[in-house]
Design goal:
three-stranded antiparallel sheet; 5 strands; about 15% strand
Length: about 170
């Protein structure tokens, strides 16, 4: 609301214009007030001129004013919005990275467990097989010694391959 309230004779007429809102001057009116509602933030100039009963125009009056934006539309508030949004994005990325690291750690734990179980269980079976076949080869007949030594050699070879596989896991 922008207005001028004075006691003037009824014959006085006014014209006004709000730069940035009105493209042209208003029609002549005897009302000594002008209403502008819901003006957006920005700088404005209100211009007013009056004509007396004899048709003479007054000097044009100018009033410069500025409507500030609400606090939630200021540059510093937009900066706060950006920082908050950046923090949320950063937090989400850190959360996702932590999830990935936990998944990798879980897989590593499973790999270690599998490799140790494989080494312990299968390794002991192959080692026992190799020793049993060597012991049997000492007391076996000549035609069976060759087969038992081959079983022992295959068991040693399987243990070496299993050891390589465990290290690869």
């Amino acid at each position: 609301f922008v207005g001028i309230n004075t006691h003037t004779p009824k014959a006085v007429r006014y014209q006004y214009q709000l730069e940035g809102v009105d493209a042209t001057w208003s029609a002549l009116t005897s009302r000594s007030e002008a209403s502008y509602g819901s003006l957006p933030s920005g700088s404005y100039t209100f211009k007013l001129k009056a004509m007396n009963g004899e048709g003479h125009w007054s000097k044009e009056l100018r009033y410069d004013f500025r409507i500030r934006p609400p606090w939630w539309k200021t540059w510093w508030c937009y900066l706060i919005y950006a920082v908050i949004a950046g923090g949320i994005i950063y937090g989400f990325i850190q959360y996702r990275i932590a999830q990935g690291v936990e998944k990798i750690k879980a897989l590593e734990t499973i790999r270690v467990k599998i490799s140790s179980d494989l080494h312990d269980d299968v390794g002991s079976i192959l080692s026992g097989l190799a020793m049993q076949s060597q012991m049997m080869a000492f007391t076996a007949k000549e035609e069976q010694k060759t087969s038992l030594n081959e079983i022992s050699a295959m068991s040693h070879d399987a243990m070496e391959r299993m050891r390589d596989t465990v290290w690869a896991i």
